[in-house]
Amino acid sequence: MITSSKTVTVGNFLEYARTLMPLTLLTGEEYLGNEILEEAINRPGLALADFFQYFANKRIQVFGLAEMTYLKSLDRSVRDSRLENLFQQDIPCVVLTRNRTALPEIERMSRKYKVPVLRSPLITGRFINIATLAMEQMVAPVEHFSGTMMDVMGVGVLIEGAPGIGKSEAALGLIEKGFSLVADDITLIHRDAHAQLMCTSSELTRYHMEIRGLGIIHVPSIFGMASVSLEKRLDMIVSLYPPDPSKEGDRSGLSKNTRKILDVEVPLVELPVAPGRDMAGVIEVAAMNQKLSYLGHEAAKEFDEHLIRTLQKKRLLNAVHLKS
Questions:
Q1: What proportions of the chain, in percent to the nearest 5, are helix, strand and coil?
Q2: Model-level pTM?
Q3: For labelling alongside 202, which of 46, 82, 98, 177 has CA 20 to 30 A away?
Q4: Which fold has domain 2-139?
Q5: Which pLDDT score, from 0 to 100, does residue 4 have?
C-alpha cells in the first residue's frame, strides 16, 4: 500500500464544492491553480482592520455580511488600502457569501494580485460548514491498495491476493452475476468525514479490467453501465491465497479477522483458491454473510450457541436418567 496526500488548488475546490452547494467564479479564472494549504476557512475581519498578526493567509478567505458592511463603511481610499494590504498576503482566494456583489476595489485587487474571487448565495455560517467538510475530504490521505473493488449487493468488497491468483477473474464472475466493478488492480481508498473508507479507481484505469489471456476490456461496453460504480464504501476485504495443507484456516467462522487501513478496522476473510472452485460464488456468499452481520445475524455464533444449548440439554437428560 502507498499512502499519499492531495494538493488542493482553488480550481479543485471550486469543482468539488459545486457538487455540494451553489458556488460560482466571479473573477480570476486564470488563477485557479493557486494552492490552498490549510483546510480550515478564515474570516478576515481583523485583517481588514489592518491587524495581521497570526493572519491565516494559507486558507480560503470568506467575506460575509459583517466584512462587506465594514468595508462599505470606510472611505474609498481607506477601503482601497485595507483591501490591498489583505490581497498582497498571498491568499489563495476570496469567497463572497449571501450573493454579495464584488466591490470594484475587490475586482481590481483580484486582477492585481492574481487572486480568484468566488460567490455563493449561502449564508456565511452554512458556507463555512460545507466548505470545511469539502476541504477535509479533499485533503484526506489516500492509500493505493493492490486489489479489485466490487459492489456486491450493496456490500463493498475488496479482493486482494498475489499476482495471478485470480482476482480479476473472480470479479468478472461477480459482474456476470449482475454486480458492479469499482476498481480493478489498483484501488484508491480515503477516509471521509464520517470515518468511513471510500474506494474508487484512478481516472486512467476507470471502468477497465485486465483479464489474463484477453488483455484490457472496457466493462460497461460489454456488460452495460449498471456493471460499474464510481465509488463504494469498503465493508470487507477478501484475501485469496493458494491452497496450503499446513494452513487449516477457520472452518467455523467464529474467528473474526480484521485489517487496519487508515486507522479503520475492516473485516477480513481469507479464502483458499483451488482448481474448479467457484470463487465468485464464494465471495458472493461472504458478502451476503457480512450483510447479515450488519443486521445482527451471526450464523457461526448462533450455531455455536445452539450447539452449547444442545450439549447442555443432553448432559441434563443424562444426569436425570442416571438419578432415576
A1: 35, 25, 35
A2: 0.63
A3: 177
A4: 3.40.1390
A5: 52
